[in-house]
Amino acid sequence: MPNPVVVEYDADLPRAIKAVVAIVARLGYTLSQVDKENGLVTFETGASMDSWAGQNMSVHISDFEESKVQIIIGGTRKNYGKQIYDWGESKKIALKIIEELNTLLGSGKVIESNNNSKGSSNTTTVSTKQKGNNPPVEGSKSLPVTRILNIFGIVGSFIVVGLLLFSKYTDHQRTEQTEIAAIEQAERAKIEALERQQKLEDYADQLIFNPRMIISLVDTIAPTELEKQVKNEKYDIVNKFSSLSPDKVKDIKAVVVAAGKARWALLEPKILADRKMKALEEAKRLAKEAEEKIRAQTTPIDFVTKSKAMCQKYNEAKNDIQRSNIFNNHQSMLSSSTVQNKRGTIKQISTDRGGNKADIFITFGANVEFENWDVQKGTKAYNQAANFGLGECVVFSGNNIRSSSRFERSHVCDSDYYITLTALLPCPK
């Protein structure tokens, strides 16, 4: 068996298998097996000038890298009579497949190919060098054997030529049959097109003389689309008859326009009423969302509620150890807390000389106050605070919550906090 041809492509395994199967069919070979799981495709070739019975070929496809496959193509000559050489036919077939694969998978990279052999053989042959070293002696009995071998060679040549001529004849017959089938298919397509056109002509005549058929077609158009078509007088139904004569298209369009306007006159009052109802429902939905948003902005802040509960435990603690534990838990709770979209009131906005820094105080509810000191000029909070006056309603957000009290109990029980403001928005009206 000759050395197989190995080639690599930039492609995944399923795509490579499909390409190999398509090429085998395109080249007219007989597909034997497709094993997608193991990446194996086998096929057979017919008799040719190089082999009397053809080749048994196999193609093994494997993916060795991401989006890369390796394809190994090899084959063996089918046993037929006493043929000794096949003149490297399996390699020729492999190279032909690679040439076709390049059109589907792009240029491949050949890794291994036996470029030195002129043919393959599955039997042992006699070397010409060995014959040269042992010339026959005059009168030797080997002379008749040589003549017999020559006769066999001549007969074999005639057989090969006969097979080649037979193969060319069968190929010609196959090509001729394919061309005849293509011509017949084209003729059938022409006949079908003419029949469709005739049916369309007959249908158009019925539409022109039977407007009720047009009305039934117009009824299938959605009301919103019908409204557009009535206003623009561009009916999709008419486009179906564009291949007819201009006069017929004009007559059909006149009937379609009249039917469309009549149907729209019936549908318009109901559609307008539905639109008003939908607009009212949308207004109610938006009002409800605004109400829920305001309610969410005014609900108590979670960590303020927790602080009040911790303050009560602090006051009821039996000793300083318990109170210190409550203090530490309170600090930890504040460090992970945030304020999101809560409604408050601007209590103070003040700056240093030149306005490089600002102090912003906001009250929430009855007795909760947030202070953001030294807000740098140019920050988001600084720029947004410039739009507010004292006493104005503000929806604010912030993080980095800390108690502003210095003593341990006040730290837990007081409701004054430092905050880093992240957003200051006007309250919805």
The low-confidence runs, each spanning 5 or more residues with pLDDT under 50, are: 115-143
* Secondary-structure element order, N to C: EHEEEEHEHHHHHHHHEEEHEHE
Q: Percentage of helical residues?
A: 40-55%
Give Rg in angstroms.
46 Å
Average pLDDT, all residues = 82
What's the total number of strands?
11
Largest sheet properties: 6 strands, antiparallel
Tell me the number of helical segments per DSSP (H or I, 4 or more residues long). Answer: 12
Question: Approximately what portion of the residues adopt beta-strand conformation?
Answer: 15-25%
The neighbouring-strand order within the major sheet is 2-3-4-5-1-6
Instruction: Look at the helices and sheets and give the structural class.
Output: alpha+beta
Distance between the termini: 90 Å
Q: Categorize the overall geometry.
A: flat
